[in-house]
Structures are given as structure tokens and as C-alpha cells.
Amino acid sequence: MKKFITILSTLALGTPALAGPYVNVENNAGFSGSNFNGHATDFHLGYENSASFGSYYVQAGPTIFAPDGDDAETRLTGKVGGSIQATENVSIYGELAASFDSDVNDYGTKVGVKYSF
Fold it and tell me: I need a surface site. Which of 41, 52, 64, 94 has the fewest CB within 10 A?
């Protein structure tokens, strides 16, 4: 099982962006010290494309939220993001994520600068 996870991680992180559809299954777990808080698993379909100036992606699908010691809940979630190649070594990236619920929608952002040697 460890080998399978390593292979999937290598493929997901090491594959250059190509135009077209993709499937993204991602698990995020939370901890406070050594206490496990729970996890969320995305089952997204997406589309990505790249050009000489940068790339973009959009993905959406169900996410299973499983807090530790509580019932799991499935919600529709999505992400849109991309990057712009500022210089040969510097790219600027961003992401907007959303989780849709009948009571309150949740949103998150990610922005950053990446320098490659």
C-alpha cells in the first residue's frame, strides 16, 4: 500500500500540466499536536490548460468531510486556480476554493510566489 501511495504522489506532483480533463482524488487530514481532528477527501473532475505565460485549472465534485468522533458529511466543493510565469525563475499562483452547504458556504484562498533554481 505504501508503494502505491508513493507512486500516486509521484505521478500527481511530478506530472507537467497538459491541456485537458483530469480526475483528482485528494485527502487532507488535520492534527492538533498528536491529536487527530479529522479529514476531508475530494473526488473532483477537472480541466487544466497551459500556455507560455502560465496555466489554469478548474475542478469540482463531492468532498467527504469526516471529523474525528462525529458523523461524516458530503458536500459539493470546487477549486479554480492558476499561475503566471513572471520571469524565467518566478511564478505567481493563486487558488479559490469553495464548499457549498445548505446553511453556510465556506471559501478559502491561496496565493504565493514560487522561485525555481
Answer: 52
